Amino acid sequence: MGLDAVVFCDCYEKGRLKRKPPNPDLVHVLPNGDLECRSKDSNVLERFDRWRENACEHEAGMVAGDYLGNDSLIGSIREKLSRKRRKFPTLFNRVIYSGTHCGDHLTVKMVAKLQVELDQLKAHRSGNKELGREIQKLRRQLQKLVHVSLKIGKPIAF
User: d(Cα 100, Cα 141) in Å, to the nearest integer?
Assistant: First the structure.
C-alpha cells in the first residue's frame, strides 16, 4: 500500500470529449475533480465506467498522477519533517499525514499554499542523505502535480 496523487482533466468541463457520456444528465464533477454518474442502476454505471476509461485523450480522465511512496517511506518523511510541521502545514496535515490515505483531495486554494511550502522545502537539508533524496523526490513529484493543478484549476486527489 502507498500514497498516490492525481489531477483529473478538465475535458468534460471544457467539452473536449471524444463522445458524449451515456446519460449525460446523470454526470457531475466531484469535489476531487473526477466525474461521477448519479445512478444506482448497475447497467447505467457499467456503461458510464466503460465510457470514462477513454472519454477523452487522458486515460481514465487523469491528466497527471504519481505514486508518491509506500506507507513506510511517507512515514519516514513525516517523522523527519515533524520538527518543522508549522513550516509545512499543508504538506504535513493534508498530504503526508498518512502514507495510505485516499478519497480526499486538496482544493486549488490548498494547492497554492502547498506550492509555497514546496518552494521552502527545496532548501531543506537532511543529515540522512538517502532520506534527503527521497524528500526532494517527493517535492519534485508534488511540484509537477501542483503545476498541472494550478494551470487547469483542478484539485489534487489522493
Answer: 17
DSSP 120: H
Q: Which residues contact 59 (CB under 8 A, 6 or more apart)?
A: 53
Taken as a whole, the chain contains a residue count of 158
Instruction: Identify the helix (H) or strand (E) that includes residue 3.
Output: strand 2-8
Q: Is 121 exposed, middle or buried (0-12, 13-18, 19+ CB in 10 A)?
A: buried
For residues 25, 29, 30 and 31, what is the CA-based torsion angle, rounded to 10 degrees?
Answer: -140
Question: CB-based contacts of 136: which residues, under 8 Å, 6+ apart?
Answer: 121, 122, 124
Tens-level pLDDT at each residue, the chain (158 residues): 899 999 999 999 999 999 999 999 999 999 999 999 999 999 999 999 999 999 999 999 999 999 999 999 999 999 999 999 999 999 999 999 999 999 999 999 999 999 999 999 998 887 889 999 999 999 999 999 999 999 999 999 99
pTM across the whole model: 0.91
Q: If you search the block for the grid coordinates 497527471, which residue do you land on?
A: 64
98 within 8 A of 74, measured Cβ to Cβ? yes
Return the number of other C-beta atoms located less than 10 Å from residue 2's C-beta: 14
